[in-house]
Amino acid sequence: MKRRTALIVALAMGAMPVFAEERPDHYAAETSADLAEAMDNFSTHNKRMAEILAQPAMTPDHMEDIHQLTYTLEDALAKIITEATELAERLEEVHLASEGVDAAKLTGLASAYLARAQQLVP
């Protein structure tokens, strides 16, 4: 009785039970070692997804292909977010240095920031 109640509560809350035989296979992501690789993986795999979506009909094979692409897309996006967060921290250092009087420090921080920023958006 407790199991049935728990299942009813879970279904009422929008949770769906996942049974091993219904779960799709999982794939290994193509990992991104750095921002440039993450941007390349993100762009390439999004283009592949767009090509699949351009097909006249979505087939189970297409759905599986998109499922496989998402692993690399998720990894690449996580790397991009991490790098963008670090970039924001560098920009704050530039901002703070621009309020000071040390031109050499500002120049160094701003140059490092720009080198990294241009990897994200050329």
Notes on the protein architecture:
- The protein has 122 residues and is an all-alpha fold.
- It has one domain (2-120).
- 71% of the residues lie in helices and 0% in strands.
- The protein is built from four helices and no strands.
- Helix 2 (35-53) runs antiparallel to helix 3 and helix 3 packs antiparallel against helix 4.
- The protein is elongated and about 60 Å long.
- The N and C termini lie far apart (61 Å).
Would you identify the regions where 5 or more consecutive residues have pLDDT less than 50? Answer: 1-20
What is the multimeric organization of the chains shown? Answer: single chain
Query: Helix and strand succession?
Result: HHHH
* Beta-strand residue percentage: under 5%
Number of contiguous helices: 4
The coarse overall form would be elongated
Secondary-structure content class: mainly alpha
Main sheet specs: none
